[in-house]
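User: Structure please.
Assistant: Input sequence and predicted structure:
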Amino acid sequence: MNRRIPLRVRVPALRPPARLPVDAFVLALLGTVGLAALLPASGAAATVAEGASTAAVALLFFLYGARLSTREALDGLRHWRLHLTVLACTFLLFPLLGLAARGLVPTVLTPQLYSGLLFLCLVPSTIQSSIAFTSIARGNVPAAICAGSFSSLAGIVLTPLLAALLLGGSTGGLSADSLLKIVLQLLVPFLAGQLLRRWVGGFLVRHKKTLGRVDRGSILLVVYTAFSQGMVAGVWQLVTPARLGLLLAVEAVLLGVMLTLTWYGAERLGFDRADRVAVQFAGSKKSLAAGLPMASVLFGAHASLAVLPLMLFHQMQLMVCAVIAKRRSHDPQDTHDPQDAHDPQNTPAPPTRETPAPVGRITPPPAPR
């Protein structure tokens, strides 16, 4: 008589499906916007909130200056072609596309939303997300670090000046008062952070997580103050769901164009694959953390509508770049360590039949026998 032996089937643990990244900070921003809509600061509370927001902006730029390593930035100058390419994408191509979108007013975008879209095109690039996506895609991570740092450093000066010149009446124009405000709230704290970095740098490293919460809390305060002023002034009555949908469509086209230009443009300029990855992710994104406090200084009571396109673009770029970085990580052409891409002692061997040549790399012919 045959005896049945029970079969034990090992069922693999169920894993949640991979999701597109929804930034928790964006959710916090949306919650802050909802709070400002329900309980806007007005009267004496608005005065207190505005003063606290001004102090928060100064604190943010002090911390930016104290964290930025001048030595690392200077070391990265050896790859100057890549950094100039990223700066050109951030402060030249983006603004040109923003100016071209002026033809969408008033049929697609309202003048207020267009001002926010143009301001979005003037904001510096990100650092953290550019590094993260470049690493996932197996690109040149050191180049992404330096490119993001250079962009942030240049944005301290270029973004306010470009906004004052291109936006004109939306920011009050390039007057002596606006320049003084920019210098006192942005440049002076940033330079103070650079000067004191020698003494406070160690403290910042030891308390990095706590100071990260301070950063985000300060930005949330800036957003609450800006949206409260917008609610009291009634500016949100000018925005309809249809306009928001059109704004999202315009931003999707803007992001798609920049992702395409940075990838294929870097190839035409002779960059190898690892550098092209760094150029694409550093040259196509915008910094929410830097743009929000700048908008509060430049736009004042009209900052709520000015930062709306930036908030939407921030989440969109995270979702799209996450998909691209994941696909780039499976690229079979990436057969070398991108961090050694510029080390002469780690020059890859000429490709054989088993090893295809990396895209965008000019491989020297084999030496004659």
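Residues 39 and 228 are 8 Å apart (CA to CA).
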